[in-house]
Amino acid sequence: MKIKDILIRYGISTLGLVIVALGVGISVKSNLGIAPPSCPPVILNLRWGNISVGTFTWMMHLVFILFQLLLLRKDFKLRYLMQIPAAFVFGYMCDGAIWLFDAIASPATDYVMQVLLTLAAVVLTAIGIKLEVVGDGWVLAGDMTTAVLSKVTNKPFGTVKILFDVTLVAVTAVFSWICFGLLTGNGSTVVIREGTLILAFLTGLCMRVTDPWIDKIFGPLVPHHE
């Protein structure tokens, strides 16, 4: 593949990561609950505030990659290592997005605004995920781990995705209870609440609306594999 084609693919994928990271930042600002893949990094940051959400994010992704290696062993392909730079890029993009929205305003307290921010996070996440797929560049470890589990267990990707997300939320809730005596966060920052369910279930529905538009706009820009 030509250098120009590679740059186009990774440019679109990187745009997708940026938009997903903005979705994470807005969901944190909503204070109504965070998407399942971001729950563990945020709750860990609440316990150890000197380590950023982004740092915990890439650390979690590295654990996912090691888990894939244990599951696949000889079938683990060299190209899967591209998840490592993707983890660092996405992690620090999340830090940037959180910092940006922290600089703009305090966490939302009005319930209507909380819901609106959560819905905005849904739309951004849906658009960002689709751009990652269209660009076919970066692959996030959470998505790849779900795909690997689907392959190993011979279960549908959608079913495994739901179980994977539920596991992340459950682990977060247990950790939150141990550290703060609450299942939802530390009392001031909400990690698990109805916003978590909204992000988990509405993102896929939103993609049914946004995907055709993204295909129409970005599809012709992406070079075909030779």
Please explain how this structure is put together:
Helix 1 crosses helix 4. The longest helix is centred in the N-terminal third of the chain and has 28 residues, at 3-30. The mean pLDDT is 91. This protein is mainly α and 226 residues long. It has helices spanning 3-30, 39-47, 53-72, 83-104, 111-135, 141-153, 157-180, 194-218.
Distance between the termini: 7 Å
**SSE string, helix = H, strand = E?**
HHHHHHHH
Q: Which range does the strand content fall in?
A: under 5%
Largest sheet: none
Describe what is shown at a glance:
The protein is mostly helical and 226 residues long.
Notable traits:
226 residues; mainly alpha; 0% strand; globular
Set down the secondary structure blueprint.
Layout: H1 3-30, H2 39-47, H3 53-72, H4 83-104, H5 111-135, H6 141-153, H7 157-180, H8 194-218
Helix pairs in contact: 1-4, 1-5, 2-3, 2-7, 3-4, 3-6, 5-8, 6-7
